[in-house]
Amino acid sequence: MIRTKVNKITAVISLLLSLAFVAPAQQRPAMQEQQQSPASPSPIVPPVSAPRVPTGELVAPVDDLITQLPFEQPAIIRQGVLVETEDGEIVMEQAADQAFNPASAMKLATALMALRTLGPQYRFATAVWTNGTFDKATGTITGDLIVSGRDPSMHYEHAVIIARELNRQGIRTVTGDLIVAPRFTMNFNSSSLRSGERFYDTLDATRRPVAATRAWYDNRQAASDYQTLQSQPSVAVMGAVYTDAVPAGARLLLTHRSSTLVDVLKVLLCYSNNFMAERLGDGLGGAAGLRRFLVNEVDITSGDVRVASASGLGVNRLTPRAMLKVYRALSDELAKHRLSPADIMPVAGIDPGTLRKRFESSPSRGSIIAKTGTLYRTDGGASALVGQTRARNGELLMFVIFNGRGNVRRFRESQDSLIADLQNARGGPAPFAYTPHTLAMRLADTELDPAKPSNKDEYEPTAN
After folding, report:
1. What domains appear along the chain, each with residue ranges and CATH number?
2. Can you give the pTM of this predicted structure?
3. Do residues 187 and 195 make contact, with C-beta atoms less than 8 angstroms apart?
4. Which of 107, 188, 257, 404 is the most buried (most CB within 10 A)?
5. Res 333: pLDDT
């Protein structure tokens, strides 16, 4: 009898415990519906539905179940937003004075500093020198070939252009070594020695990589220079590759000048090229120099900015209000030179790079000019979209959207949805007047100055 009562009590307790676990699973959809009710609407971030747990199938402890939830469905999304009209009227604001990680949107600040410091028509110089003698009859330099410069856009095709110019001067063979100045880089490689080795191979047609030949052909076609493609520029350097300063007494053979800063920035920002941004920033004072510029020149409050890099890598900080101030300053700087943001930033759905696929088949194609920012791990995931959009009612809106600590893909969807809502509330999107040019064409507009002296500091002619 006692055993029967105990068994009954045990059965009742077991039933109650099972109901205690199952009941929340049955009620969860109802609780989620309450979160989606109009009582606390969130037009910026769409609600995230909880995963369904079928009744009676809860076989793991609650804590274990929570750890199994997909990480791409964060329950809380940190977001900062500031949207203003062209004349400064606030349209939308959320956590505009809270610091976020701008990720690659920091490149807009680097672009602004470069434009103000160097000017939009600035060209980066790469010089080629020799410390030897030249025998015109044999086309041979007895001595070394030296290359120096700080061009962040130096690439395969530019090395072939240099080989072509050396051939025009009659130079085809160098008996000595290739000496590369310490700050010379090529193909977005930060190592001067590795860059020198790539330059060495690209000069010589017998060693030239297939990718270099392809880049050369694309470059010449973009420049409509088909006649040059009938020949194969080539300079053979017989020695090895070393890194050293340009020796005193070296004779300048030629100076290669990059495309203008505006065109370099267009490529940099379309592809969000971290290497180019860091190289550009290094020449202007690095992260510390960028922070001083933002505080002293753009009048950003010191406490609203933290700069770890010129590219946006790492733990940087800006508030949406400070970021919009940077964007307005950039737009004003471009306007001084009769340029627009589209001259240096990607036009959504049209230009290649980070915004091509996001808006390629969207009604908003061509109506957004913006810089993206993406960090998958830093700060738990960070995403940004900064720029301007145009609506059919003629209104131009400038915006900053920062997201942190969550899934980047969902952040992008939220950003795109917000921009679409802003446009649709004003009659829909309206494309900007914009004529695209291939990025290869932009980097093909280089210049050559045969044996023309220039500012030697730019070439590091002597050791410090």
Report:
1. 78-120+263-440 (3.40.710.10), 132-246 (3.50.80)
2. 0.80
3. yes
4. 107
5. 98
